[in-house]
Design a protein that fits this description.
The complex is a heterodimer.
Chain A: E1 16-20, E2 26-30, H1 31-34, H2 38-45, E3 55-56, H3 62-80, H4 89-102, H5 107-120, H6 123-137, H7 142-148, H8 156-168
Parallel strand pairs in A: 1-3
Antiparallel strand pairs in A: 1-2
Chain B: H1 7-13, H2 30-39, H3 42-49, H4 54-59, H5 65-73, E1 76-80, H6 87-96, E2 101-105, E3 112-114, E4 126-130, E5 132-134, H7 136-145, E6 151-155, E7 158-159, E8 163-166, E9 171-175, E10 178-179, E11 184-187, E12 192-196, E13 204-205, E14 213-217, H8 227-233, H9 261-271, H10 277-282, H11 299-319, H12 321-325
The chains are: A mainly alpha, B alpha/beta.
Chain lengths: ~170, ~325
C-alpha cells in the first residue's frame, strides 16, 4: 500500500489504517470507520496508522477491538453523511436493528465496550452501551438489581444499610 | 498519539480473564461483573444513570457506598413523587445541587405542589414536570434564577397566574395543563411550542420571532365558556381541518409556521384521538437527549431534533409498554378521566 496521503480527509474512503490491540493483534480497517473515534481521527488526520506503522491501542484487547470495529464499520457510512440526514427510513431501521442486536451480549463484554468507547471517544457507541446497561437496571427491586449486576447477597450489615436507605427514600420503592 | 490511558482501565484489564472473551459456558462470572461495573469511571456511570429516572437511580444506592455517592453527584435528576412524599424538598435539593436537568412527576391523584418555593440561582437547562402545581412565585423564581433554562415541559400541571419572560427558553411544551388564569409567554428565542388541550384558559404568546415549529391543539369540551372570547382574539393563523371525522364534539385548530407545517400536521392528525394515557408517554423520557450529543444549542438543529422527537414519541408509544409496566404503579399506565 502506498504511503498514507495525509491532510485530505476526502481520501479517507479508500484509505486503510492498521490498529494494534493490547495483545498485539493487527486490525486493518478503513480510515473512515476508525475515524468514528475522535481520538483516532486526530492521529489519522496526521497521516498516522498507514502502511506498516499501525496505531497501538494498549488499552483495548483484540476481542473488544473487533467488536468496536464492527460497530464503527456499520456506522461509518451514516456518520460520513453528517449524522445521516438523508438516510432513508430503511437505513435507519437497519442501523437500529443492528444496534439492538449488537448490545445483546454478556455484561462483561458490555463493560469492556463502554470503557473502550470512552477511551477512544466514540460517542454513539458509548451512549448505546450506557443505555443498554441502564435498561438492565431499570424497573427492578434492589435485590434484583444486585443479582442482575452480579453483586453477592448482602451481608447483615449491608442489609441493615439497605433497609435504612429504603426507609429514607420510601418514595423510590413504593 | 496513542489514546489516553486511564489507570483504572489497565488495572481492570489485568484482574482476570481477557476482555471481551465470550465465555460460552454461560457461567455468571459473578464477582467479575461486579468489579467491572463498579470499576468504570464516574463519568461513565453517570452517563448510564442519566438514562434512568430518579427513583430508579435511587435504588442503585443499595449496591454500595460508591453508588450512593454517584446518586448524590448526579448532574441530572428525574424525580418521581409518590402520594405521600414531600416533592418540594426533593426538588429544592436538586436545585441546590445545581443539576442541569430535572424531571418531576407528581402523582395522579395528588399533584406535587411547588408553591411558595424559593429558588437559588441554578444552571438548570431542562425542566419537565407532570402532575404538579405551580404558583406565580415558582414561575417567577424559575425564570429569574435559572437563566439557562432552555426547555420547559409541563404535562397535566396546574399553572397559576404569571408571566414567562425568558431570553433563554427555546422549547415550551404544555400538555393538558390547567391555567387558573391566562399565562403570558414572552420568550424571544422560542423555537418550538406545543400547546395541547389547555384547560380553562389558553396561554397568551407575545413573541414568536424565532419560532420554527408550533403545534396547538384545543379541545372545546375541556374549556370553560370563557374560552369563547378567545376564539376571536387568538393570534394563531387558523386552518380548517380536513379529516376531523372521528371525534364528534371536538374540533381542532392548528398554528402552522412555514418550515414546520409538515411536522405539526403529522403530530396532530396522527396523535389526536389517542387515549389520554398517550400524553403520559408523550413526555415521559428525557434522558436520551441529555447532554450527550444534544443539538439543543443550535436553532437549525433544534428543528431537526424536534422532528426526531416526534418520531421517537411515536415509536415510544408503540414499543415502550414494558418500560411503563416496570414503573411500579406510576401514573403512566393509568387513564385519566
Amino acid at each position: 500500500m502506498a504511503a498514507p496521503e495525509s491532510g485530505d480527509g476526502n481520501n479517507g474512503a479508500a484509505r486503510m489504517v492498521t490498529l494494534i490491540s493490547s495483545d498485539n493483534t493487527r486490525f486493518e480497517v478503513e480510515a473512515a470507520a476508525a475515524s468514528l473515534s475522535q481520538t483516532l481521527q486526530l492521529t489519522i488526520l496526521d497521516g498516522g496508522g498507514g502502511g506498516g506503522d499501525g496505531i497501538p491501542l494498549p488499552n483495548v484487547d483484540s476481542a473488544t477491538l473487533s467488536k468496536v470495529l464492527e460497530y464503527c464499520i456499520k456506522h461509518a457510512p451514516a456518520a460520513a453523511n453528517g449524522g445521516a440526514p438523508n438516510a432513508t427510513a430503511v437505513d435507519r431501521a437497519e442501523l437500529e436493528r443492528f444496534d439492538n442486536e449488537f448490545v445483546n451480549i454478556d455484561q462483561s463484554v458490555l463493560y469492556s465496550l463502554i470503557m473502550a468507547a470512552h477511551n477512544l471517544e466514540i460517542e454513539g457507541l458509548q451512549s448505546l452501551v450506557a443505555k443498554k446497561v441502564a435498561d438492565m437496571i431499570k424497573g427492578k427491586s434492589p435485590m434484583e438489581i444486585r443479582r442482575t449486576l452480579g453483586f453477592p447477597d448482602p451481608t447483615p450489615e449491608e442489609q441493615a444499610e439497605m433497609n435504612a436507605h429504603m426507609l429514607e427514600y420510601g418514595w423510590a420503592y413504593e | 498519539m496513542p489514546p489516553k490511558v486511564t489507570k483504572r482501565w489497565v488495572l481492570v484489564s489485568r484482574s482476570g480473564e481477557p476482555f471481551g472473551s465470550r465465555k460460552g459456558g454461560g457461567g455468571r462470572g459473578v464477582d467479575l461483573s461486579m468489579d467491572r461495573l463498579s470499576a468504570l469511571p464516574d463519568a461513565l456511570l453517570h452517563h448510564i444513570l442519566s438514562f434512568m429516572k430518579a427513583w430508579e437511580v435511587v435504588r442503585t444506592c443499595v449496591l454500595s457506598r460508591r453508588w450512593r455517592d454517584l446518586w448524590a453527584s448526579a448532574p441530572c435528576v428525574d424525580v418521581r413523587v409518590g402520594e405521600y412524599s414531600e416533592p418540594p424538598e426533593d426538588f429544592a435539593n436538586a436545585i441546590k445541587r445545581k443539576v442541569r436537568v430535572i424531571q418531576l412527576n407528581g402523582h395522579l391523584h395528588e399533584s406535587a405542589k411547588l408553591n411558595h418555593m424559593d429558588f437559588v440561582s441554578c444552571p438548570l437547562k431542562i425542566l419537565k414536570l407532570s402532575y404538579a402545581e405551580l404558583d406565580d412565585q415558582f414561575i417567577r423564581g424559575l425564570f429569574s434564577r435559572c437563566p439557562s433554562l432552555e426547555e420547559l415541559d409541563l404535562m397535566r400541571c396546574v399553572v397559576g397566574p404569571g408571566e414567562i419572560v425568558s431570553a433563554s427558553l427555546k422549547t415550551l411544551t404544555l400538555v393538558k395543563c390547567m391555567f387558573t388564569t391566562n399565562l403570558s409567554v414572552d420568550a424571544s428565542n422560542l423555537v418550538s411550542v406545543r400547546c395541547i388541550a389547555p384547560e380553562n384558559w389558553v396561554p397568551l404568546f407575545k413573541n414568536f420571532g424565532s419560532l420554527v415549529t408550533g403545534s396547538v391543539m384545543l379541545d372545546d369540551t375541556l374549556l370553560s365558556r370563557e374560552f369563547e372570547k378567545y376564539q376571536d382574539e387568538d393570534e394563531f393563523p387558523q386552518t380548517s381541518d380536513e379529516d376531523d371525522d372521528n371525534n364528534s364534539g371536538h374540533f381542532k385548530r392548528s398554528g402552522k409556521y412555514a418550515a414546520a407545517s409538515d411536522d405539526s400536521d403529522d403530530f396532530m392528525t396522527d396523535d389526536y384521538g389517542y387515549p389520554d394515557d398517550y400524553y403520559d408517554h408523550y413526555s415521559s423520557d428525557i434522558k436520551d437527549d441529555y447532554d450527550y450529543g444534544s443539538d439543543i444549542n443550535s436553532d437549525t438543529e433544534t428543528y431537526e431534533y424536534s422532528k426526531i422527537a416526534n418520531v421517537y414519541v411515536n415509536r415510544q408509544f408503540i414499543n415502550n409498554d414494558d418500560v411503563c409496566d416496570g414503573s411500579k404503579g406510576g401514573h403512566s399506565g393509568e387513564v385519566y378521566h
